[in-house]
Design goal:
With about 425 residues, this protein is α/β, with parallel strands linked by helices. The chain has 14 helices and 18 strands. Helix 5 packs antiparallel against helix 6.
Length: about 425
């Protein structure tokens, strides 16, 4: 009798935990998920993706991070050469503030003061010209001084331009014409009206198609605060996408939110935006369909109700890796990047973000991006059947009936064998 009571109580606790989420049962299922993820690792990764890593070797040779932005501009210029020319460049570095350069700031103050002084001299000379008409030497001397000041001011402008690394990066992004930049949404329960995003960022928003009867759109991950790239950069970029991750209850990353709601718009992930540009698709070719997923050209990526895409991870470093340092030194043939997706991001220890995943305990964020892109291009999609929820409840009830009424009547060895088979 007590065995039946224990079985009923145990079944009730498992049902309660399953319905509430975050239970021990879910943690166990996640571990089984990771085990299966290693079994289904693809034997080959997409040949369309290459990674240029800001790795330990690059830091050892080029200096500590952060680097001057002129160095990133130099890489983009290198990739923009006719010999390289990737179809899409995913620059996975968020430049949300101007580069700190105290010398540039002081030079700007001096340049402004000198410019105002030169303008004042020109104004004064214009007033005095009638009085100096008969004193040609004095008038010429004053005019010559103004011309010397203008030449000096021009030299200061050239010096300013040579030190303005943000201007160099802006020009490099514009010249490449294929750079996708990241932004970050805060999704930690912030409330209130979402501030307007930059016009260049808003243009990257997804089209949304609401399906009648679907409630999934209401659960889409949302935000009311964003960290955007500098407008001078986003305005020249080919697109912008978010770099948010969505860890599970154990802290591991198994999914990527391909869509996040912000204000009255829905924005794509960085990975999705890179794929869009690589395939030559317009915004009208990528549509978030509530309850169905995201259509990407002729294919459709399945999402859960929160807009998350389940990632099938390849083995660690399955994609071609190239050191930033070796690339800019010319030690990598440019055609290694031709017509490909080139992802640029940090992998060095202490730089950038690393994550626990089903296949690695310290996977750089740039590889999560690469895996998501590879899944979409290869149409390697994981789906959760609509009947899986009810089926799980039925299985829990069957297990409860077994534990309550059948297991107590079995001997130790047969009971252990049958229990193991049912758990498997």
């Amino acid at each position: 009798m007590y065995e039946i009571l224990y079985g009923v109580v145990l079944t009730f606790l498992f049902l309660l935990g399953h319905l509430q989420g975050g239970s021990v049962l879910e943690s166990i299922e996640l571990k089984f998920y990771d085990f299966r993820a290693k079994l289904r690792q693809p034997s080959e990764s997409s040949k369309a993706v290459a990674i240029i890593a800001i790795d330990d070797e690059s830091l050892a040779n080029l200096g500590r991070w952060p680097w001057p932005r002129s160095r990133i501009a130099g890489l983009l210029k290198h990739l923009s050469s006719p010999e390289a020319k990737p179809k899409a460049i995913g620059l996975n570095i968020l430049f949300s503030e101007p580069e700190q350069n105290q010398g540039l700031g002081e030079l700007e103050k001096l340049r402004q003061t000198f410019r105002e002084g030169t303008a004042a001299k020109e104004t004064e000379l214009a007033k005095l010209k009638p009085k100096l008409a008969n004193i040609k030497i004095a008038a010429k001397s004053w005019q010559d001084q103004i011309e010397r000041d203008k030449k000096f001011l021009s030299s200061m402008d050239e010096a300013y331009a040579s030190l303005d690394n943000d201007a160099k990066l802006e020009l490099a992004i514009s010249s490449a014409g294929s750079v996708i930049l990241p932004l970050f949404f805060q999704t930690d329960g912030l409330e209130g009206k979402a501030p307007e995003l930059q016009e260049a960022v808003s243009k990257s928003a997804l089209m949304v198609q609401s399906n009648l009867g679907s409630q999934d759109g209401d659960a889409l991950l949302s935000s009311s605060k964003a960290t955007e790239p500098l407008e001078r950069f986003s305005a020249k970029a080919a697109g912008v996408g978010h770099i948010n991750t969505q860890p599970d209850i154990d802290g591991a990353v198994r999914r990527e939110p391909l869509a996040i709601a912000y204000g009255d718009k829905t924005y794509p992930s960085f990975s999705l935006k890179v794929v869009q540009h690589y395939l030559g698709l317009g915004n009208e070719d990528e549509v978030y369909k509530t309850g169905d997923g995201i259509s990407i050209g002729n294919s459709q990526a399945p999402l859960d109700g929160a807009g998350n895409f389940a990632i099938t991870f390849a083995r660690e470093k399955a994609f071609p890796y190239y050191s930033f340092y070796k690339v800019i030194q010319g030690n990598v043939t440019p055609d290694a990047f031709r017509d490909k997706i080139v992802l640029v991001g940090p992998t060095a220890i202490g730089v950038g973000n690393s994550y626990v995943t089903p296949v690695a305990h310290n996977l750089p964020g740039i590889e999560i991006v690469a895996n998501t892109i590879d899944n979409i291009l290869s149409k390697r999609f994981l789906t959760r059947p609509s009947w899986s929820g009810p089926a799980e409840l039925v299985l829990i009830l069957l297990m409860g009936l077994f534990v309550s009424f059948v297991l107590p009547k079995l001997k130790a060895t047969p009971g252990a064998i049958v229990s193991a088979v049912m758990l498997a």
